[in-house]
């Protein structure tokens, strides 16, 4: 059983790599940047923002930087909430999600076992 679980986890690595790569390049193919939609900014401000977030680097440099940050668990700054990183936002909402997931799991086990006993 352990061999099966290990094999399935190792098979998930290329799948995650492909999904990460596809999502990165799809976001880069979209017109504009993360900062163009909200309000019109002067060109010098846009240049400063693009330099700060390395959006003016070549796309392959951005991609390898993105992979390196993901490997280190750094999901970057939040563009919506100032002074927060994505890690902070995930960490603050994870306990609520974990409680909800655990409650759903126990409810599913109770209902599933009950239905199985009734059906047998």
TrEMBL record:
Keywords from the named record: Cell membrane, Membrane, Transmembrane, Transmembrane helix, Transport
Record keyword rRNA processing present: no
Organism, as annotated: Escherichia coli
Pfam families to which the protein is assigned, alphabetical: BPD_transp_1_N
GO cellular component: plasma membrane
Main location: membrane
Annotated InterPro entries: BPD_transp_1_N
Cellular localisation: Cell membrane
Domain of life (superkingdom): Bacteria
Higher taxonomy: Bacteria, Pseudomonadati, Pseudomonadota, Gammaproteobacteria, Enterobacterales
Membrane topology (UniProt): Multi-pass membrane protein
Protein name in the entry: Peptide ABC transporter permease
Transmembrane regions: 12-30, 100-119
Domain ABC transporter type 1 GsiC-like N-terminal: from-to ranges: 1-73
């Amino acid at each position: 059983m352990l061999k099966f679980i290990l094999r399935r986890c190792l098979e998930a690595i290329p799948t995650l790599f492909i999904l990460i790569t596809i999502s990165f390049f799809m976001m880069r193919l979209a017109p504009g940047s993360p900062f163009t939609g909200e309000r019109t900014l002067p060109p010098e401000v846009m240049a400063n923002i693009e330099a700060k977030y390395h959006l003016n680097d070549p796309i392959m440099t951005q991609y390898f930087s993105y992979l390196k940050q993901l490997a280190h668990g750094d999901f970057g700054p939040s563009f919506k909430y100032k002074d927060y990183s994505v890690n902070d936002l995930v960490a603050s909402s994870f306990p609520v999600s974990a409680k909800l997931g655990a409650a759903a799991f126990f409810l599913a086990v109770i209902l599933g076992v009950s239905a199985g006993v009734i059906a047998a």
